[in-house]
Every structure is written in C-alpha cells, then in structure tokens.
Amino acid sequence: MQAVPPRRAGHDRVLLRRAVTSSFLGSVIEYYDFLLYSTASAVVFAQVFFSDLSPLVGTLASFTTFATGYLARPVGGIIFGHFGDRIGRKRMLVLSMSLMGVASFLIGVLPTYGQAGAFAPLALLFLRIVQGVAVGGEWGGAVLISAEHATVRRGLWASFTNAGAPCGMAVSTLVLTGTSAAVGEDAFLRWGWRIPFLLSLVLLAIGLFVRLRVAESPVFAAEQDQGANGRRPLPLWDVLRHRPRVLLLGVGVGLSAFVVQGTLTTYLVAYAVQGGFERQTVLNGLTLSSTLAVAGIVGWSALSDRLGRRPLVTAGALALAAYSFTLFPMLDSGSTALLVLALVVGQSLLHPLMYGPLAALYTELFATRHRYTGASLGYQLAGLGAGFAPVIFTAIRAAAGDRATLIISCVIAAFCLVTVVCISALGETSRNDLTEAAENEPTRAPAEGVTEVG
Fold first, then answer.
1. Is 423 within 8 Å of 314 (Cβ atoms)?
2. Mean pLDDT, to the nearest integer, of 10-22?
3. What pLDDT does 10 receive?
4. CA 138/CA 31 separation, integer angstroms
5. Are 47 and 120 in contact (CB under 8 A)?
6. Cβ contact 286:343 at 8 Å
7. pTM of the model as a whole
C-alpha cells in the first residue's frame, strides 16, 4: 500500500485533537449508558424488575440481563465493523452513539414488574441487547479514529478511548448516588433510578455536536483511494481467513482484563452490599477508583509507547493474578478503608496496567481494509469476560458457600495466566505501521527502545 500523503503539521494536530476529544467524550457517554446499567443491575434492578424472586436469585437474574449486553457486543462489532471498513469510521460512530442514547432513555421510561408483569424484564432485556450492539460498534471506531490520526505516541492517543470507560463509570455512579441521596431510598427505588437514564438524551446531544466535527481517518481515506476500483472480500471473512490465529490470541490477551473489570465494577458492588456495607459507601469507593483509573490507563499506555505493549500487559496480568487472592479478605474484614483500598489498587493501578495498552494493541493487529472488524471482534469477544464474570461468580457463591471466594480468586488468576501465555505467543505490536497491510505476524523481538510509528 502507498504511504499516506504528507499533511500539514499544524492541521494534523488540530485533526488529532478533535479525533481524540471525540473518542474520549464519545466513550464516556457510551460507557456512562452501558455501565450505568451494570451499577443499576447490582443495586436496583433485582428489586424493580425481578421483585418476585428471592434476593440472591433476583441478583442472578439481574446480572443475566446485564450479561446479554456483552453477548450482543461482538454482534455490534461485526455489523458496525463491516460498514466501518467499507464506508468509513465516522458515520458508524455517529450511528452507534445515537443508538445507545435512545436505548438508555427508553430504559428510563420502562414500567416495573409490579406495573407490567413479565413485559418489564423482557423489554429491559431487549434494550440491553440494543445497548450491547451499540457499544460493540462504538469502541472499534473510536479507537481507530484516534490511532489512525496519530503519527507518533499511538498508545497514548488510542488510550483515551479506553480511559472513557472508567470515566463513564465514575459519572454514571456519581449521578446514580447523587440521585439516591437527593430523593431518598424509597423514592429512589420507586422512580429516582430513572433520572440517570433519562439524562442520556442530554449527553447524546452534546456527544453528537462534538463527533460531527471530526474528520474521517486519513489512513482509511488513503485505503479507499488505493482500493476504490478493486474488489474486496467481506471484512469478516477477510479476518477469519487471513488472521484467525491473531484474532484468537487477541481475545486471549484481553479476556482477563474484562474478567477483572466485571469483578471490580459489578460483582464486588453486590458482594459488598450483601456483606453489610452501605450501598452509598460502596458506590463512593467505586466512583473514586473509577476516576483515578483514567490517569492509570493514560499513564500506563503512554509508557507502552516506550517499553512496548507486551511487557506492561504481562506485568499487569501477573500482578492481578496475585492480587485476586487479597480482594475478598479485604472486603470480608468489614473495614471501609480496606474496601476503598481494594477498589483503588485493583481498578486504578493494576487493572489499567493490563487494560490501557489494549486499545493500541488491537489496532496494530489488523490491516486497514478489515481493521474495524478485526479489532472490534477481538476486543468484544474478550469483553464477554466482563459480562459473564458476575453471573458465574454469583452462581459459584450460591453453590460453594464459604469456599466460594477462594474458588473465584483461582478463576481470576487462571484467566490472568491465559493472558500471559497469549501475549507471549502474539509478540510485540507497537512497531507495526498502520499504513501497511500488516499481513505478517506481529514481531516477537524484544520491545526495549521501541520507536512509535504512525
């Protein structure tokens, strides 16, 4: 493929800033909506939509609807990836944001189980699937629009999309807890929980205003010019035919990051509340750790431009494997300080070490002609770990009793070791040039002294 034509440096910086701002803000809004559901599923939905079930079974049912959103994410990645690779990244980003905003608003106006019976949880399930499709299409486009605008420090600029996830979690948790504190517990369970979902329309308007000003990716534009007259295979078929090994290894690399994410941001919330902590206390700790995670993701990702993706992801996976055995003893202590410390160390320091570099890593695995599809599919298949971890761990707790927490820690550690094996087999990706076809496997050379290429 021909190199991307030279562009004016000042103009490039403006376009890059717009792309990164759009990606970060769009990610914040998308994950505000998507992760608002995760917090609500842990503290509200079992009582609102599954009120005819016991508390434990109701929580399991609530987490199951939560998990369906993650099941739908690979579907969204394939659909949006196909059109993003064919007609452009920007159009798909506008569509995914609109779809998410409308679905979240409609959740806010759903009737409860007491008002509509079985229709209420079924409608909730459908809208959760729509959310999953939307966020499945959002991530790949947002990462690519930043990474493909960057000419240096690709890990840093791509990471702002991943940083939007904990920021969205912090905003959603803050709005949820602020609403609860403002209206009181009883009113919150009756109608107050709807307010954060209804606010989605306001965030959607802000996000679309910013996103519509972003230019299309120059790497994609060059690819279109080069291949406009040629016949190209379907992006999904192209990935499955030419990059199946890379796709599978990419899923394995990201899987543990999502298992840990689902554990820290969803399962531990329900576990701590059921263990006697005040809901507001737990949500405050989650808000703090989510806010600090933004700096962790950006900081570790910037370092991956110097040291490479592989060393940081490996270190994060090994650290979290060990840390998983301290999580539940800290929560079982009953100490608020240890609860907050567990969340902050896990979500703000160790998880970003493994999660932050993934944004750049996934973009570096695939050629431009199928990059949206390949990166989205790999990332969203790995994301199933976050959707199913709370369901699996709740079931383990129901079946294993006192031994459950040790079993859960072993499961987390095992997933982390899978990541270590897969990143070792995959090799270093930070030297890959996004303007090239990238048909060869990522280099396995040591990553020291990596110089970023755009």
1. yes
2. 81
3. 56
4. 10
5. no
6. yes
7. 0.84
